[in-house]
Amino acid sequence: MKNRFEAIPNPSCRFEIWDNENGEPVVHHDRLLTFASAKSAARITDFLNDSRSPRRRVGAAEWRVADRDLGLGG
């Protein structure tokens, strides 16, 4: 089974989160989810894919996304 979300490089040497189900990049609060490093993008992609699983939703509160990972400063 293919994951719904994946991190893909874009032409500006950043990594964006792609939604395979909708066939478009992921936008959160009117901002494109794009990251400077593959590691940060992979962390968010793993979080999004795991949070869709019923067994992971129970522990989803333990996941915290830092503002710096979303490019909001910090």
N-to-C SSE series?
Answer: EEEEEEHH
Please give the largest β-sheet: 4 strands, antiparallel
Structural class by sheet pairing and helices: alpha+beta
The fraction of residues in strands falls at 15-25%
Number of helices: 2
Radius of gyration: 12 Å
Fraction in helix: 10-25%
| Total domains | 1
Layout of helices and strands:
Blueprint: E1 5-9, E2 15-19, E3 24-25, E4 27-28, E5 31-32, E6 34-35, H1 38-51, H2 54-57
Describe the protein in words.
This protein is α+β, with helices and mostly antiparallel strands and 74 residues long. It has one domain (5-62). Helices cover 24% and strands 24% of the residues. The protein is built from two helices and six strands. The protein has helices at residues 38-51, 54-57, and strands at residues 5-9, 15-19, 24-25, 27-28, 31-32, 34-35. The strands form two sheets. Strands 1, 2, 3 and 6 form a four-stranded antiparallel β-sheet that branches. The longest helix is centred in the middle third of the chain and has 14 residues, at 38-51. It is globular and about 30 Å long. The chain starts with a strand and ends in a 17-residue tail after the last helix.
